[in-house]
Each structure stands twice: as C-alpha cells, then as structure tokens.
C-alpha cells in the first residue's frame, strides 16, 4: 500500500481552517507553514469516501436520528479495538468532543461545582469549565526524567474539592498513553471521593503500535467516555462524535441537555461512523497510518535533536502532536510568536492556552508530508543561527 502521509493533497484554497485560516484570521503571508490545527494533510480512508459518495448520491438530507447501526458500530469497535464491552443503547451522538464535554459538565454538575483538569492540557478543557461557571481544580502533570507523569498527590487534593474529572487519554499535548496502573489509581481516587470520571479518548485510535491504550471504561463501569473517528480517520469536519455513558440516570440528564441544544447528527455523520468502524479496509488503513505516524514522529524528533539542540521535547506515544520546549530561547511568548510567524514563517499552536506550564512551549502538528517538516526544521535552524540562538 502506498504511503498515506506522503501522498500529495492540496488543502490551500479549500477553505481549510489549518491552511486558509492563516491568511483570513491572522493576515499572514501564504508561505507560512501551518503546523497547528489538529487535523492531518491526508485523504481519509478510501472506503469512507466511497460510503459518503454513495450516501450523497441518494439525495436525501433531511433531519436525521442517530442510527442504531452507528451505535452498534461504536460498540463493536470498542469491543474489538479496546476490549470494552459497550451496550449500543449507551451510545449517544454528539457533534464534537468539546460540545460533548460541555454538555456533560452542564448535565452532571451545578454552577460553582469543581472540575479537575491536568495541565498542560487541550485549552477547551479549561475554557468550557470556566464558561459553564464551574470551578477549575488543576492537578498539573509533572515531568520526571523527560517523561510526563500524573501527580497523584495533586490529583487527590483536587478530587477532594471536585465533582467531576476531565481526563485526556491519550493526553493532548504531551502525548502520554496512560498505563493501566496509572488509570487504576485514577479510578481508585475517583471512587474514594465520588468524582465522576469523563475520559476524552479521541486520540486513542492513533496510539502508536509500540504502546497500548487502556480504555478507562474497562476499569470502572461508571466512567463516561467521549470519542470519535475524527482524529483517527481525519474526518473532523464531519462533526461525528459520541458519548458512551453506562449510567442510566446520567445518560438521561445528558440527553435532556443535548435536546435543549438541538443535538442531531447529519446524514453524513452516521455514514462516516459506520464506514470507519465496520469496514475492514478502513481498519487496515488505520493500522498503516499508526505505523507511519510513529516512524515520522521519531524521525522528526531525531532531526530536531540533531539540528535544533536548544529545543527539547518528550517522545509522544500517540497521535501527531509534538510538545516543543522553547525555554532556552531568550524571548517572551509574545516575541516568540511574532518571530515564528514573520521570520521563521511557521505557525505552531502557542503553549500558553494549554496552561501556565505551557508558556515556554509550542505544539507542532507533524501530520503532514515529510518535506514540509524538513523545511520547517530548516527554517527554524536558519533563523536561530541568524539570531545567534545556537
């Protein structure tokens, strides 16, 4: 099978947030390399495109219910790929992981309740809690021997004051795939302090072949899982996500909130979930993509270590997001952003919104053709040398 990552795909001038957003939103020149938004520059699995084309050919696009076939597809996928037995009736549709988390927080907590996060973490975690008028209790990750770990002392203290815990698993942006032992400690603390665990597992299906994702739902029957095929199959624009909620009362409360916000799938969302999770060709495609992403991630890190010794990172265990430490460069976060955009001419996701620990960091998306990544590293190296940052 041909390389998935190295296929040519024109995304400029397609109204792509990642590519065209740089000019429309930030007024940056077209030669700035976009290595930010968490989607990748590849075509989705051919079998998914074929299923969507067949659906389009039917010409029927009315209001749509969440298909039982899609619920069963999610159930079978989690059973087959993650050893989690899921009742299809426990699967709710959501138009995205962030809306799902927002609706869960609204449904299962009250204004003023505490919600635990682990920074540096995907910025909407903090934003949705604050926007819902809940209190953030942060249990920041700690870095030990070039590896991020959970701080269980801080996590326990946060859980004492909270009602719900938003777990990012695998973690965005640091790329950790939490071990079974780590997740068992999470479950034990949550049970002790009666905290609801809500796991965002959207990057789980991009766990590298050298690692093993543990679905936390296999450790506790009262965990809520939120996920989607969007990252794994690069179909984020179809807004096809779901919630797995095994507790009847919680599911009723979440559904009540979703109904208030008019949550319904598009016809294409049903089709995409079914095609992604039931087609053997799509599954083989995904396994190849995981292999290519791990190889490319290792190659990029090796290149950074060789050519950019002032930058530091840890090796992710899943997905295509690289958490880069710029702390040795003598510039503020704002100055660094301007330098990256206008002199280096690359666009990364600034670390500040991920939490205070991220001020000296940038998140790089390596899910693109290798030649673009090589060019980005070359530009960084040349501009660091020009500024004598070497």
TrEMBL record:
<dbReference type="InterPro" id="IPR027619">
    <property type="entry name" value="C-S_lyase_PatB-like"/>
</dbReference>
<dbReference type="InterPro" id="IPR015424">
    <property type="entry name" value="PyrdxlP-dep_Trfase"/>
</dbReference>
<keyword id="KW-0175">Coiled coil</keyword>
<feature type="domain" description="Aminotransferase class I/classII large">
    <location>
        <begin position="44"/>
        <end position="380"/>
    </location>
</feature>
<keyword id="KW-0456">Lyase</keyword>
<dbReference type="InterPro" id="IPR051798">
    <property type="entry name" value="Class-II_PLP-Dep_Aminotrans"/>
</dbReference>
<protein>
    <recommendedName>
        <fullName>cysteine-S-conjugate beta-lyase</fullName>
        <ecNumber>4.4.1.13</ecNumber>
    </recommendedName>
</protein>
<keyword id="KW-0663">Pyridoxal phosphate</keyword>
<dbReference type="InterPro" id="IPR015422">
    <property type="entry name" value="PyrdxlP-dep_Trfase_small"/>
</dbReference>
<feature type="coiled-coil region">
    <location>
        <begin position="279"/>
        <end position="306"/>
    </location>
</feature>
<dbReference type="GO" id="GO:0016829">
    <property type="term" value="F:lyase activity"/>
</dbReference>
<dbReference type="InterPro" id="IPR015421">
    <property type="entry name" value="PyrdxlP-dep_Trfase_major"/>
</dbReference>
<dbReference type="InterPro" id="IPR004839">
    <property type="entry name" value="Aminotransferase_I/II_large"/>
</dbReference>
<dbReference type="Pfam" id="PF00155">
    <property type="entry name" value="Aminotran_1_2"/>
</dbReference>
<comment type="similarity">
    <text>Belongs to the class-II pyridoxal-phosphate-dependent aminotransferase family. MalY/PatB cystathionine beta-lyase subfamily.</text>
</comment>
